[in-house]
Amino acid sequence: MYVKVVFNLPIDKILTYKKPDEISDSLIGCRVIAPIKGKNNKGIVIEEVETIDGNYKVYPIKARIDLEPICSDKEFKLAKWMSNYYHSSFGEALFAALPVGTPAKKEKKAKPISAKQKPYLKLNDEQENVVKKIIESIESNNNKTFLLHGVTGSGKTEVYLQAIKKAVDMGKQAIIILPEISLTPQTIKRFAERFEGKVAVLHSKLSPNAKYRYWQMIKKDEIKIVIGARSAIFSPTPNLGIIVIDEEHETSYKSADTPRYHARQVAFYRKSQENAVLLLGSATPSIESYYYASIGKIELLTLNKRAASVNMPEVKILDLKKEKRADAFPIITQKLAEEINKKLEKKEQIILFLNRKGYAPVVSCSYCQRVLECPNCSVSLTYHKKKNVVMCHYCGYTQYLDELCDECKIGHFEQIGSGTEKVEEHLKILFPNAVIERMDQDTVGGTKNYEKIFKRFSDGEINILVGTQMIAKGLDFPNVTLVGVLLADMSLHIPDFRSAERTFNLITQVAGRSGRGEKKGIVYIQTYSPNNYSIEYAKNHDYISFYNKEIENRKFPLNYPPFARLVRLVIRGLDEEKVENDANKIADMLRMETYNNSDKIIILGASACAINKLNKYYRWNILIKTSSHSLLKNFFDKLKYNFTAQKDNYIEIDIDPVNML
Length: 661
Ligand code: ADP
Ligand code: ZN
Description:
Elements: E1 2-7, E2 15-18, E3 31-36, E4 39-49, E5 63-64, H1 73-86, H2 90-97, H3 125-139, E6 145-150, H4 156-169, E7 173-177, H5 185-192, E8 199-202, H6 208-219, E9 225-228, E10 240-246, H7 263-274, E11 277-282, H8 287-294, E12 299-303, E13 314-319, H9 334-345, E14 349-353, E15 362-365, E16 382-384, E17 389-391, E18 398-400, E19 413-416, H10 420-430, E20 436-439, H11 447-458, E21 464-467, E22 480-485, H12 499-511, E23 522-527, H13 533-539, H14 543-554, E24 565-573, H15 576-593, E25 601-614, E26 617-626, H16 633-643, E27 650-655
Parallel strand pairs: 6-11, 6-12, 7-9, 7-10, 8-9, 10-11, 13-23, 14-21, 14-22, 20-21, 22-23
Antiparallel strand pairs: 1-2, 1-4, 3-4, 3-5, 15-19, 16-17, 17-18, 24-26, 24-27, 25-26
Helix pairs in contact: 1-2, 3-4, 12-13, 13-14
The structure holds adenosine-5'-diphosphate and zinc ion.
């Protein structure tokens, strides 16, 4: 007997090995160790055959990893689709979809999460209506996709819970995808409280082997509900009834590694294959999804009111060009400081948001003006005061900050701009009697610290919580009545056609943390661009107007999604000139290959990436706008043929990219 094996490598060929005689059961779907050019690799058996055609030397596989298969036809088909759509090898796609853990020597079982059970809430009319439609669809197996647009606090989660309950009652399974940072104890508890003994949570802190054990339980239908970040979309549920993607606009649902899949796209494929319902939820739907809803490709469901008849918070804008600062603190206005004081007096809680960790984002020499840059990346280094280091937020490069500039040997380093660490320091001076905590990657190393700060805030022990986007989502604290966005412009100036959308989303999400209880909430947005439409519409909680404006911007002549599909090619390598040459060659080839369709394909570049150097690699990119990916098929075939053999540079193919830097 022979086995056909694929590997987590960029090779399209399927390799054949001899199956050891002592293995009598089928190896299909099992991982094995097999040699390639004398080196051992992990592979997956996708087929067994009696004979081989041709006369070549066949090596035996070295070892077997799985005693029972971890995947079957369904996963093979999914991987096939994924490798076609995202232009990876079949093996890379299959490995991306499977857990990396291994079976335990002794039979161990993973435990579903557990909590004291709570009854279901009585739905309001809006929720009732929405849940009814979703349930109808689950019952009739009509594999619909819904977009649930509901303002923050409108009770989307309760809708998910009740729709999922119905699916589970019907003997079906559910997958819920959340952004990693929303996998908070609070969110998880809400699911555990309703589905005792049925829920698995797959988060990044879980060990690979624990994930593997859950995987096998999900496969055997012993787990009914899977909650997890992006990769949980591959959960091998045999009886899938519903997939929920919360915060469907989230960019973290797109994988940054080959295959660069988007969980939403994979979900769409799976629900079609398995006759399930796909429910996309957001307070700020992606422009693409809302467009598809507006033309009837998917069904729009709306929740207009906050659930617990709480009003939306009032939002006020503070113009950083005009407002006086609180003492000499660059990023806290007098007005905001006064409001914070009022809330502190009332013992209400405050969240301040700044999406920049560290003390100062730029460090420069007072004499020679040199700005400290990462040696590996074309970005400036951020100063972290507590550790007295400068750090690259892209590659992690870290060095101590010298007293004197090591180039001119005259000047001292000045810290320019503000990060969360500096804000915390200033807040402690401004509000000496308040308890202030910071939540960002520096203070929240592991889950433990996160949960500690989280619990203390929840118990009211912390007055002011300052943090990065870690605090922007999912937090539901009724005593928070003031939210401050310290610098709303940050995401506006990123060279990306989605920067307005990101800004609108972020402000709306953060603002949604305020006034979730009985007390009225208020939000202050500090900005240098008070008239920017994304900020103005966010102020008025006006998603529809924002959408209408934004969708116009995306149309002809710019032709951005949803009016065109994008493909981004990034060519990277250690030699800048070779990268540039290859990038230009590829762009030329692309123009030649698509010449006959030049009315349907727009090619931008090759040009240097916005982050020209990352992790020592120089990077150039080509952006393709097309009405259909299939018009590019010949080009991709040629690209593989002409360039993959070449060792100098690596080509990243990004279909429907979300990262344009
Ligand atoms: P979203 O997910 O849309 O932000 P949540 O589901 O978190 O909203 O709901 C916001 C708050 O409203 C929560 O505290 C939740 O318990 C409450 N809530 C949701 N639905 C109802 C309801 N039908 N009746 C009363 N309270 C509700
Ligand atoms: Zn770096």
